[in-house]
Each structure stands twice: as structure tokens, then as C-alpha cells.
Design a protein that fits this description.
The protein is α/β, with parallel strands linked by helices. It has 10 helices and 12 strands. Strands 8-7-6-9-10-12-11 form a 7-stranded mixed beta sheet, sandwiched between helices. Strands 1-2-3-4-5 form a 5-stranded antiparallel beta sheet. Mean pLDDT is 87; it is low at 250-258. Bound molecules: S-adenosylmethionine. S-adenosylmethionine is lined by residues 64, 69-70, 78, 99-103, 122-125, 128, 154-156, 173-175, 180-181, 184, 206. The active site is at residue 173. Residues 17-256 form the PABS domain. InterPro entries: PABS, PABS_CS, SAM-dependent_MTases_sf, Spermi_synthase, Spermidine_synt_N, Spermidine_synt_N_sf. Keywords: Polyamine biosynthesis, Transferase.
């Protein structure tokens, strides 16, 4: 493709010409590739490189620092699960905080919960929000909900200043722990989350892959077991374009069904906590 060839950022054509290859020190030795039809946007924000391209088979794709954040085809599996797992675990969540999530997809899902009265979102990079509004209207639709209060800033600082016990649920929809999201994986951050949650509140965070990042998952689980007095669990989903999944940390767990969604249902909710034996062994030992 001429357009892709002309653009030539590092993640294009280094494996197969005309394709995007996702390479990262987070998954050394592997590179998931998608055929590029057209590069739609390339920019550099204060925090990261931002690319949007039209892929041959997954619709439009958002890439930050060379790493896929979402594709139109499979984003539902991520957004629905990271949102409804926590929000269906507590009765009538009213005040919700989203950290990261600049594409708006988690907001779209939070907005489906009629009990929710207020949604704060703190995303560090305004360019992600703007690009999503321009290229991913079905995802960025979440920003249109009148309950949303968008703050552009660092999620770590936002949580430090949040009023104690003020949120029913916190959803951390972060990128990987290299770059601006690094601190979102560290113990002090989870301590601030615990402070900002009301008793019985719930937090759900993107916690990478069972196959690749057991060391990261172990650290998060053990930090959260120290900090949160209720239950701490790890749940997973299947997103074909992610080499990673996320973890799920809660104070209290109960489940209820929720509307006609594409991916999430109550059976998937339960099944997401069924883990391979190697993961159960590590997580239960923490
Ligand atoms: N679903 C995605 C995934 O797992 O690949 C994550 C998508 S979302 C676009 C991740 C967002 O987290 C990015 O927009 C990034 O700018 C934001 N982010 C990273 N570090 C942050 C921080 N310290 N505070 C707030 N937002 C942050």
C-alpha cells in the first residue's frame, strides 16, 4: 500500500511490507501483524505516538507507541468485560471513576447502567480523545453521556486528590506499564484507589496477559491482597488483537444480568474467573 509505505513509522513494514507489526519489549520474540489498507492519522502527543489505520480485516485500529489499543472488530470484548464485570458485582453503582480509557469505550459501557449518576474520567492524553471522536464515533459516543465529567490529566495525581470514600467503582483502562501508565501498576496507586473507594466498592484494572506477564500479575495480586480487605480475583477475556488481558480486584462480588450486549453475559461473567491451573496456583499462593 502506497500510503503505508510513505508513512514508514517503525511499526510499519518491519516484518512484512504493507502490514503493521506490533512489537514491544512487553512481548519479546513475537509480533502480531495486520494488513494495512490506509494510514488515517499519525501524530505525536506530549506523551506518545498516536496512529490510526484502516486494517483489511479488523476495521479501524488505534495504536499508541506501536501497541494496538483497540480495533473496531473486537473492542466490545474488552470494553464490555472491563466495565460490566465490576459494575455488575455491586448493587446500584452511582459514582464511577475511569482512569485512562481515552477512546471512550468504557464510558459507553458505564453509561448503560441506569443507577450510575456521575462518571469522572481522567485521561492523560487529549490527543487520544480527539482522535477517537474523529475516527471511532461508535466508541467515542461514550463522551456524549451527560453524566460524564472528563478531566485531562495524570490518573495518579487525580486519585491522590480524590475525596476519600467517594467512588462506588474505579475502572483502570490503562495502556501497558511502559510510558505514561507505569505508575498505574504500582502499589501507591492501588493505595490511592482503595482510599477513594467507598467501603464495598470495586476496582477493575487492565492487568496484561496470563501467557506473558505472570510476574506483573503476581505483583498486582499481592499488592492488592495487602491493600484491599475484600476479595481479589483475576478474570480474563478473549481479544484476538491483544496479547494481554486484565485483572479484577474487588471488595465484594455478586452478579446480575445486563441487557443485550455483544460479548458479556452472566455465564461469561462466571466463566471469566475460571483460570488455567498454572495461573490459579500462582494467584492462590499470594
Ligand atoms: N483498551 C486498551 C488496551 O488495553 O490496550 C487501553 C485503551 S486506553 C486508549 C489507554 C489510555 O490510558 C490511553 O489513552 C493513555 O493515554 C491512558 N493513560 C496512560 N497513562 C495514563 C495516566 N497515567 N493517567 C491517565 N491516563 C493514562
Amino acid at each position: 500500500d502506497d500510503n503505508a509505505a510513505a508513512a514508514k513509522p517503525a511499526c510499519f513494514s518491519s516484518v512484512i511490507p504493507g502490514w503493521f507489526s506490533e512489537m514491544s519489549p512487553m512481548w519479546p520474540g513475537e509480533a502480531h501483524s495486520l494488513k494495512v489498507e490506509k494510514v488515517l492519522f499519525q501524530g505525536k502527543s506530549d506523551y506518545q505516538d498516536v496512529i490510526v489505520f484502516q486494517s483489511a480485516t479488523y476495521g479501524k485500529v488505534l495504536v499508541l507507541d506501536g501497541v494496538i489499543q483497540l480495533t473496531e472488530r473486537d473492542e466490545c470484548a474488552y470494553q464490555e468485560m472491563i466495565t460490566h464485570l465490576p459494575l455488575c458485582s455491586i448493587p446500584n453503582p452511582k459514582k464511577v471513576l475511569v482512569i485512562g480509557g481515552g477512546d471512550g469505550g468504557v464510558l459507553r459501557e458505564v453509561a448503560r447502567h441506569p443507577s450510575v449518576e456521575h462518571i469522572d474520567m481522567c485521561e492523560i492524553d487529549k490527543m487520544v480523545v480527539d482522535v477517537s471522536k474523529q475516527f471511532f464515533p461508535n466508541v467515542a459516543i461514550g463522551f456524549e453521556d451527560p453524566r460524564v465529567n472528563l478531566v485531562i490529566g495524570d490518573g495518579v495525581a487525580f486519585l491522590k486528590n480524590a475525596a476519600q470514600g467517594s467512588y462506588d467503582a474505579v475502572i483502570v483502562d490503562s495502556s501497558d506499564p511502559i510510558g505514561p501508565a507505569k505508575e498505574l501498576f504500582e502499589k501507591p496507586f492501588f493505595q490511592s484507589v482503595a482510599r477513594a473507594l467507598r467501603p464495598g466498592g470495586v476496582v477493575c484494572t487492565q492487568a496484561e496477559s496470563l501467557w506473558l506477564h505472570m510476574d506483573i500479575i503476581e505483583d498486582i495480586v499481592s499488592n492488592c491482597r495487602d491493600i484491599f480487605k475484600g476479595s481479589v480475583n483475576y478474570a480474563w477475556t478473549s481479544v484476538p488483537t491483544y496479547p494481554r488481558h486484565w485483572g479484577y480486584w474487588i471488595y465484594a462480588l455478586s452478579s446480575k444480568s445486563n441487557g443485550p450486549l455483544k460479548f458479556y453475559n452472566s455465564e461469561i461473567h462466571s466463566a471469566a474467573f475460571c483460570l488455567p491451573s498454572f495461573a490459579t496456583k500462582v494467584i492462590e499462593s499470594k
